[in-house]
Fold each of these.
Amino acid sequence: MLFGPFEHVPAYPLVFPLFYGAAVIFALVMARHLRVFAVAGPSTVSGNIPARLWGVVEYALIQTRMFKDPRAALMHWGIFWGFVLLTVGTANAVTGGFIQAVLSWPLDSLLWTAVSALQNVVTVIVLVAIGYAFFRRLVTRPARLTYTTDALVILALIGGVVATELLAQAFEFARYGDQPGAFVASALAVPFRSILRPGGVETGFISLWWAHIALVALFLVYLPYSKHLHIVTSFFNIYFRKLAPRGELPSMDLEREDATFGLKTLQDLGWKDLLDGFTCTECGRCQAACPAWATGKPLNPKTFIMGIRDMAADAEEGVPLIPNSPSVRETYGLTDGVRPELLARPIVDTAIPFDAVWDCVTCGACVEACPVLIEHVDKIVGLRRNLVLDESRFPQEMAGAMRNMEGVGNPWGQPRSTRTDWTRGLPFEVPTVASLAADGRLDEIEVLYWVGCAAAFDERNRRVARAFATCLNAAGVRFAILGQEESCTGDPARRMGNDYLYQILASGNVETLNRYGMNERTIVTACPHCFNVIGNEYGQLGGSFEVVHHSVYLDRLLTSGRLRIGEDGAVAGKVTYHDPCYLTRYNGIESAPRDALAAVPGLQLEEMERHGRNTFCCGAGGGRMWMEETRGTRINQERTRQALATGAETVAVACPFCMVMLKDGLADAGRGPGTEDPVSIADIAELLAESAIPAEGGRRLSVLQ
Amino acid sequence: MRIVVLMKPVPDTAAGGERLTAEMRLDRAAVPAVVNANDEYALEAAIKLTEAGDGEITVLAMAPSNAPETMRKALAMGAHRGVLVTDSSLEGSDTLSTARVLAAALETLEYDLVFAGADTSDGGAGVVGPGVAALLGLPLLSYAAKIEPDETAGQVRVRRISPTGFDVLEAPMPALVVCTQALGEPRYPSLKGIMAARSKEIVTRSLADLDLGGQAVGGAASGTKVLESTPPPPRAATRVVREPADVAADQVVAFLAERRII
């Protein structure tokens, strides 16, 4: 019999216009979204299809990133998988029982019975999860969420779709008898059967059954206007995610005349950036992870992405849902296109306040936290590029640092001639590559130590350079430095948005390194920013280098037995280790620094709550080292508070910027040197150098004077 | 509004290593050149006055022949064109010679205002601007903290910083204004500006192109000679106050008061 499973539903064929009509509206609204995507710029999506597909499984189906917040994750998992399974029932209803017919065929209907039973189970799970979701939104109200009617409407729609389906089934059973499998509905049918008159049961069944279909249709029509659209877009957003190293900003071709530099309007964004916007579910995990937001600054990564989506949605104004025929367009002079003036609005001060653009420390905590792999940082740097290169509009303090990088090759504004001052008084020679090359001894170099500007010029960080050189010397590593030929890598300039200055500095360094054949050697650096930019970004300028962070290098020296630690060394006590963003979050180096620290005699590691990939920035990334922190409270003070909460006697760092920021933070907290209860701060290299056994004939250098 | 900004390429002070040659002249090869910082303030003031309406800013320099490289930085900030007076016989010019050459060059240009920086970071005399005004008979408005030209009235009004507050001066244009840093931080050139500067015109003139009216200029004619040059003694031990802010402030105030600095 045609539509057998729905023989009790009056006017059943009306399902088809209702559901498919809604589906067509859904498709038309989605197509209108895509019209805006089409006027956005290109996005580079490289191949590697297996990795992309695996990402969809990992992030969209298993939803690994959600489980950093286990309760919310379980709730979401329940609703998602429940909804997927229940869609089988809905699909059956809108196909005239096709699914049921197929699934009933094998094993004497056993499969369909099992599906029915499972559907009943997940219905209950979904309803419990929806209940919890309402409870969160209305009672506990976590700070990271955005409280909108949209969210409540969606919860009500899901709850309604699921509840009407189950209840309709229960009423159907009460009136016409049970079907195998759907045991929850059977149980619910018992009281209905006994309490209600048969006529009432039938009316209940008919109205609930049609209410279910009506809600499904409503859901489809409403979805493209809702943040809940992520159930469609997140798969694509995850598939098309950035696969390049997280620390590699998009390259820039500065020779393109008449081009807009960086990101100014929607048209400068790539379509993937707009997809980011339409994928954001306003969950606020980025907001909760953001150090700028945590310290009361106007930057909110969530509202930035929402703002981009809203701009894109606004740009659809006037675009008809059903395109006009060419003759109508010609007659009335219609373009049907996205209006240029709606695309010309600047993103800054529409989707994100000007100040917020500069509050970002580019620490990447938002990107790390996002369950659907939205890229916030690349976009913020893109906005900075436009403000710096096109408009020359940025915080005043930045100009000084940029002029210094431009003039003397370092943001501190120190003369090049003082670059090697840190080596003075060391009991061994630190040769420059140039001097070795002049003597024809270039082959002797095992590693090039890329000192970096901070270690060369900052008083405190010079001690780190001395300590690291001492470790290298103790391990018998033949190393050299570039000395005055070294320049700032350009990282601060690039992350401030001045890619022009970055490219000048970086290509100079690439040229110097290649001239000495350092592309065939190992480069070691104690600065995670230098490490990231040389390793991940110099490739864009034709530089291919093997660069190792000093924590990894020291760990290797310890493992191979070249660097030996004496048991008579200073006892370190309780130490907490602060993960630098550009080392751990951007480059995944988490265990090597800890392994190296474990070699220090008597060291007891106390982890902060936010460590590893969830580390909390010191406040100096993204060029913020050279900007004033005038809004909100200070990020370094917040991180210092977290470090002090561990009760550690020493804060261990592995980055010169973190060193400066946390040293200041400790001083501000009244725990600096010379205070009653001081907490010391030391780089990993300093802690190791304290107790390293010197190479034969050498002597131990007291580095922590 | 046509403004000429006097500009000098000077050794980058941040680079350090500024030194003299055996002839007691600045060794320009030792350190890369930049636009003299005070001239950048003058240029910034000129750009602010002209960017709203139509106007033209000319950067005028007397410098060695490689100066266009540095002048492009001024053009990138927003000046429209450059005029460079360069001649090997000008090497070793003193301030009077320089003022004479710049004045002669200004005679060939049309302008409403001439802006000069307060002084240069290498020479530090601070008299070239006033010298040019004197030679051309232009009104001199010095220590400007605010510049308000009125084109219809042909007048310029300047707020001049004085030891007791400020004076408001007014003079007919053309006039020469010596600018101060109170006029506002110089802008950082945008990449658009840098690219536009590549194709902006820099006119080079030699001494033969100028009418100096028989005045002697150049090293040979200089009335001043550098006899000796000593680097400043290394800085004495610094005292660092490491107390909490409230205590530290008192100590700093006491330290300064003790020396009658405040």
Amino acid sequence: MAPHFGLAEFGFLLRGLQWTMLLTLVAFVGGCTAGLAVALLRTCGHKGVEWIVRVYIGIFQGTPLLLQLFVVYYGLALTGLKLDAFVAVAIGFTVNASAFLGEIWRGAIQAVPLGQTEAAMALGLHYSSRMRDIVLPQAIRISLPATIGYLVQLIKGTSLAAIVGFIELARAGQIVSNQTFQPLLVFGVVGAMYFVLCWPLSWWGSRMEARLALAGQR
Amino acid sequence: MQDQILIEMKGVQKWYGRYQALRNVDLTVRRGEKIVLCGPSGSGKSTLIRCINRLEAIQQGSIAVNGHALDDSIKAIDVVRQDVGMVFQSFNLFPHLTVLQNCMLAPIRARRISKTEAEATARKYLERVRIGDQAEKYPAQLSGGQQQRVAIARALCMQPKVMLFDEPTSALDPEMVKEVLDTMIGLANDGMTMICVTHEMGFARQVADRIIFMADGQIIEEGAPDAFFRNPQHARTKQFLGEILAHH
């Protein structure tokens, strides 16, 4: 007799949800940090550096994320570097996120009017101050809707981590479903958990977008 | 002191790709001089002043500001930008900072003075452009004329030796032109060295020591306002003055 979906099963899903959130957090924080570097190098004005970063972005945007996870988990293992599943997927998602966020922020940096940089230069401000005090604060505001949108994609995308045996929310749902033979109920709960996580972010993102559009009209 | 040369441009040539924007420009500006640059659009006026604080690089010739030669080194560019303030056609205030913060940022970061000192300086110059009561507002809450006066105060806070004005009233509604010109006239009367790219010929007549007319990247003609308006020498100057004064 198979167990019914009860508190123990729900607790198992909750633990899966925790891992999904942790993986998202690590990938997003890591991706933001590396993505900032990508965006800054991509706009640094040095042709060679910009070209290298463009190739980097192209590789991670132009190949399936699944493939990238395989490479980190199985590929690195072949070279003798055996990584824990969580560490492997965290690295994979972080690097992937750095390319996407880097490209989003590159666009935002370039969307800040050139006059802002010129005024800052005319005032004698150096590159670091121009970026920190003038360009990035405006670029971050511009990029906020797209960044939040990417975060939502990232949360849902972490379900791919199941492929290398990492038990996050989607994989936990699959396991519970196999045990209880109640796929509709189980995946219904799993879907609701994703929704509770993503929907407020999406709502916040579209509200930011509307506010930015309004500010742009002034 | 009156004869001290602040800006010296010699044989300056500048290209954008194959297009030559400046042709063999020589210009000497002495301390306290007020110069108005005029000419048809695309004649190189803006390019010329943007070369002085190295917003544009030149390909040939030399530029020196306050005795410091301007080359490609960060140090030289720094030294020159400390001495040269600039006001833009589109104001270019920092929209995410208050008026006061706009004026305090560069002195704190580039001159490394204390916050208290920067604020005192900022309030002094905001007062001087008659906008002291708006210090806590954001640029978007001000009118165009007010924004441009903030931009002037912001440049003055760096205590420059020369001020460059790049068509400062061209983006303004007509009723706001006067308040900005009055601010500039005040600045001129206080002895500030100024180079103004402008089509405001009334301002030129009233303030300029010299008017320089440019076309096709060259200085065609220059002179004191009286002689320049009454008796222009070149056909192109006559044509330009004919067109621009017809509307006044």
